[in-house]
Amino acid sequence: MRPIPRFTPDLHPASLVATLALGTVGGFVAKALHLPLPMLVGSLLAVGTAALAGLKPLGRAVQFPAKLRLFFIPVIGVAIGASFTPEILRGAVAWLPSLAALCLFIPLAHYLSFRALRATGTLDPITAFFGAAPGGLIETVQMGEEMGGDARMLTMLQFLRLITTLIAVPLFFTALSGHAVGSAGGASMSRTQPGAIDLLWLLGAGVTGGLIGWRLKIPGGMVTGPILISALVHLSGLAQGAPPGWLVALTQLIIGTSLGVRFAGMELRRFWLALRLAGLSTSISIGLAAIFAFALARWVDEPISAVFLAFAPGGLVEMSLVALSLQLSAVFVTAHHALRIVLAVAAARALAPRLAK
């Protein structure tokens, strides 16, 4: 079992405050522009740009202790676990064909993207493998770093996968429907507001799930552990609702900032390389998602657009917001993306030892 990490950052407090302030400003700017996941995307862009440009607020480079984010990551897991309701279980029977197909789609998309990235001759096997994963930005970067991959390149590949998916999905629906559609960046998902008892259960799910995931080395344990415990709590009816919006936003800020500082010292030519590689990998996953959508639409009681959203390699929240804006089944999309995250992380963890050999 791995020991629980201790929070002992070796950094300058003023630099930490300046970095968080920069990330916060970036988050609110992204929110004003109605971007999806504004606190995550905005803080990552702001801090990442400062890191790439070599800016030094208060005379020091942007800094953030990586271990600090471990205290916030379980919030994401609890929020995802809150999506598992009895309604999803009842609907899952009709969704079995697409849920089963997702088990094929994830390793196939991962393998094809991995081979394409390796064929370019620009990435080592570890970085190419985890950079090609069609889901789990935080988890795959962490696993890849643990195995010796290029953490900064992994961060760019996974982040740019999210961004290119957010751009490509509206284009897909424009081609499908014949008219432009929005990205639903300003939409919001209605959720039951948790009471005091609910919050205690959610807190317990996050702490317990995080500890279990970390100790037992569950794939992406700090996220998947809380997902599983939160799902059990919600399915059993012990709690309702999800973590408060302000806590989720703070978590996005922490994660975005922690990822942004990883761009420090990276050459611009490496960034443009990552952009090209991410475009290559994402185009493969999106193309494969479209093929699966057309093939599965007749087998599930959902339109092609909903099935495509369920397989698109974007984030759970982003794709659910797009589903809401198009008046599609957000429950269907959420169920598939929750499974996609678990499958993507589990597949990466399972196949990594063979890659190491």
Please characterize this protein's 3D structure.
- This protein has 357 residues and is an all-alpha fold.
- It has one domain.
- The chain is 69% helix and 0% strand.
- The protein starts with 12 loop residues before the first helix and ends with a helix.
Q: What's the quick description here?
A:
The chain is mainly alpha-helical and about 350 residues long. Helices cover about 70% and strands about 0% of the residues.
Write the layout of secondary structure elements.
Layout: H1 13-32, H2 38-53, H3 73-81, H4 86-92, H5 96-119, H6 125-131, H7 137-146, H8 151-177, H9 196-215, H10 221-235, H11 245-260, H12 268-296, H13 304-311, H14 316-325, H15 330-356
Helix pairs in contact: 1-2, 1-11, 2-11, 3-9, 3-10, 3-11, 5-6, 5-12, 5-15, 6-7, 6-8, 6-15, 7-8, 8-12, 9-10, 12-13, 13-15, 14-15
